[in-house]
Structure formats: structure tokens, C-alpha cells
Amino acid sequence: MRKNPHGAQRVSHDVQRSLSRIISELKDPRIDKLLSITRCEVTRDQQDCKAYISVLGDLDSTMQGLNSARGFIRKELARSLNLRNTPEITFVPDRSIEYGVEMSRRIDEVIRQDEEKAKESGITDSEE
Q: How far apart are CA 52 and CA 39, in angstroms?
């Protein structure tokens, strides 16, 4: 019997959804309310899970709060999902949003510099 190749993706998605709900219900003041889990990667044997988080606030404080609540989060995850094994969760900061914002800022800066050079040389859009 062939295993479902999409099973790991389905489990990762279910874990991500459950983690989002569980974390939103935590009462730890260190955990920023503007937190999102961008993706989860659960290993095939369901022993480990990397949860990538993005925070619009204090990342260090949020990471401390999440790591201290890791046991509780895992227990609640076991209650909400019917899995053979409940994965050990590792929280990883996802810096892709920060990177995208920085790249957008750099592109805007280059465009602004090009427009300034064009004004200095007297070239307008209609002449190009």
C-alpha cells in the first residue's frame, strides 16, 4: 500500500492551524498579539516540527514567551489533533517579511535616485 505523498503537507497545515489557535489563546504578556505562524514543517515521522513565526513587535520577548510555554502548547496540540505522535515544537523567527520590506525600500530608493538624476540632466519621460 502506497503512502499518501500529501500526508506530511496535510499534517503540517493542521499543526499550523492548531498552533495559531492555541497561541492566540495564551495569556503570557511577553507574547505579542500581532504574531502569525507563516508555515510549519513537520517531519515525516511526526517527531519534530519547525514553526516559523513572524512578529510585528518585540521578537525576543515573544520567543522567550513561546519557548517557556512550549510544553503547554504541545499538550494542547495533542488534545486538538489526532496524531500518532505529537511533534516536539521548535519556534523559528521568519524574517522573510522583513526582508521583503527592506527590498521594497531599496527598490524605492533606487527609483527615487534615478528620477533625481533624470531631473538633473533635463530628461523627461516623454523624451525617453
A: 5
